[in-house]
Amino acid sequence: MAFPPQFLEELRTRLALSDVVSKRMRLQRAGREYKAPCPFHNEKTPSFYVNDQKGFFHCFGCGAHGDIIGFVMRHDNLAFPEAVEALASEAGLPVPRPTEEDRHRYERQKTLHDLTEQACRWFERQLVAPAGRAGYDYFRRRGLDDEIIARFRLGFAPADGNALRQYMLSQGFGDDDMVTAGLLKRPEDGRAPFSFFRNRVIFPVADRRGRIVAFGARLMEGDGPKYINTADTPLFHKGTLLYGLSRARQAAGDGQPVIVAEGYMDVIALVRAGFEGAVAPLGTALTETQIQELWKLIPGAEKEPYLCFDGDNAGRRAAWRAVDRTLPHLAPGHSARVVFLPEGEDPDSLIRVQGAKAMRGVLEASIPLAEAVWRMETEGKRTDTPESKAAIKAALEARCDQIADRTVQAFYRTEMRRRVDEAFAWTRPQGPARGPWQPGRPGATRKPQRHLVGEPGLRTGPPPGHKRRSPVRSVQEHLREKVLLATLINHSGLFDDVGESLGMLPFPPGGLDELRQALITILSADSGGDSGLDAAAVESHLSSAGFDTILASVLSESTYDHGRFARPEASDAEARRGWWPTWGHLHHRQVVAELREAEEALAREYSDEAYARLLALQQEVIRAGMGMDDADLDDNAS
Questions:
Q1: What's the pLDDT at 617?
Q2: Angular region, 341: left φ>0, alpha ψ -120 to 50, beta rest
Q3: Is the same domain home to 243 and 373?
Q4: FRET partner for 107 with CA separation of 20 to 30 A, picked from 48, 155, 521, 543?
Q5: Alpha-carbon Rg for the chain in angstroms
């Protein structure tokens, strides 16, 4: 039974060889490969290797070698059609049943592959012919030598719009196929078709297997668009391929970074400088499919390609578009880093003038995707009113909503809320929206000032010399914090009432605070538990996020001995009654520490604002102390 070549290629792309092999035998990581004792002959030491990037297995003992289909055939003792059907089932792909029409279409695609390869060779010859002198000189002025020109198969399309057609006709190809492949355009008036590429240097585009499927072309002088590219054809879809993809697959497998540049010459410059993993989109902004392709290139669990953009406003806009398209597809270990070049530079110009070392420095200065999201929504934005701050917070929340993976989304929410809290740290948060009592403070007036994020004058953290009074205590001493967390984990239905109050407490830095932030993020996304997120589900979310150790400490008998209302068997009413006094003890400690700080500040330098703050804190300490009713908590738990 014959299968379409495109289907077999999709099957090999969809499934990682190591995943298929590991379901049938135990593999051990060996650098960028996997190894194991060979399943095809008896041996004591591993000589069987699996390479995902190259897509094959090889045994150095018996010589067994093949791809994913060959492995299943040999290991499972299946014929080729049976192996393909088994793999298709694993990949979730329907097995196509070829028809006469299918066979005709695949035969035509084979013809088109031959056609584009012949056209590429013709363009190459034109570059070194007298008619292509202008193109050859252009490449030499851009610093390319003959070796690089040959390696990238660069060519030239002469101004004669009939030259390519006449040559291809002489090789047995027809006008219809040349039009289908994007080499010719057919006039509407019925005249003979003419060359799409004329008087331009040519950049051949290869598919994943290195076969030429399309062309990009640059105008050297005169009127017209600077770059043109082959339109979509049966061989080529510009939103799915990347320029330099086949070479980058090998480079990424060898441990080189994957770098996404903006143009053909940028990729060539990067490769010349030793960055073999360079690729570029093909005349479009980076697409979701291309992002997924980038992650497939990189072996291992941590996949972070570098998205490299020019340092001007257009480059920043392109970066934000790429980040926006990447966010929905983030997954554990699947992210990106954003690179901005100096103003007025691109990789080609930077490397030609300053060398590969400058490019390495730019890569080292790259920012994580989370930092890029923060900059997208804060750079140049006003922060002088509560409304403008709220707008920034809402925009960041909306960005987090784009992330489909719940675990990654939860950590992004935690990160963005932390950044908002730090950026607007001088703004005193209000008390809990609900509860038996409402701590508040008459705030001192502040003359409004108009600031933009990133400009001098915006306070992005506590004022100089400020330290929040949060006494250093061991984890064993943080029993009240642990009791509050255990209560909310076991009684998530209380979140609407107590979530905001939990967030305003100064938790000790480290595991407890990280657990607190993750818990708030999970329950916020669950709308306070309305969707049925019970204690077991909350624990599962936190455990999958890596909090197993600290979670065991929080949900321990030691915690429950000091706060019986936190136990899972306690009623929600009992949990609510115990929550507020426990929270009140911690809040009281917080405001007392701030009162001492205010007293010290007033002693150092008197001002009306400092005095007003001192009076407000004195009143809040009194109110906080009044809220400290007896709780079902050991008094020694502080």
A1: 66
A2: beta
A3: yes
A4: 155
A5: 32
User: Is the model's pTM score more than 0.70?
Assistant: no
Pick from 38-52, 502-516, 535-549 the range whose average pLDDT is largest: 38-52
> Strands (DSSP E) along 469-524, which ranges?
none
pLDDT of residue 465 exceeding 80: no
- Amino acid type, 101: E
CB 602 within 8 A of CB 608: no
Give tens-digit pLDDT for 363-408.
Answer: 999 999 999 999 999 988 888 888 898 999 999 999 999 999 988 9
By the 8 A CB rule, do 203 and 216 touch?
Answer: yes
DSSP 329: G
Q: For residue 115, what are the domain limits?
A: 99-236
pLDDT value of residue 125: 96
Q: Which long-range contacts (CB under 8 A, 24 or more apart) does 56-65 make?
A: 56/17, 57/17, 57/21, 62/38, 64/38, 64/40
pLDDT at position 438: 33
Task: Return the structure tokens found at 123.
Answer: 């363009």
C-alpha span between 246 and 244 (Å, rounded): 6
Residue that the structure tokens 């990654």 belong to: 408
Domain tally for the chain?
4
Which has the higher per-residue pLDDT, 600 or 136?
136
Which among 472, 474, 470 is positioned nearest to 558, based on CA atoms? Answer: 474
Q: Which token pair is 566? A: 């936190």
10 Å CB burial of residue 493 (0-12, 13-18, 19+) is middle
Do residues 211 and 191 make contact, with C-beta atoms less than 8 angstroms apart? no
Last residue of a domain, one of 355, 379, 403: 379
In whole angstroms, how far apart are CA 289 and each of 88, 237, 239, 295? 21, 11, 7, 10
Same domain, yes or no: 70 and 173: no
Question: pLDDT-based confidence at 560, cuts 50/70/90?
Answer: confident
CB 156 within 8 A of CB 201: yes
Domain shared by 172 and 243, yes or no: no
For the cut 70, the answer to whether the pLDDT of residue 109 exceeds it is no
Residue environment code for 397-436, b if the CB has 16+ CB neighbours within 10 A, otherwise e: bebbebbeeebbbbbbbbbbbebbeebbeeeeeebbeebe
152, pLDDT greater than 90:
yes
50-53-54-57 Cα dihedral, nearest 10 degrees = 10
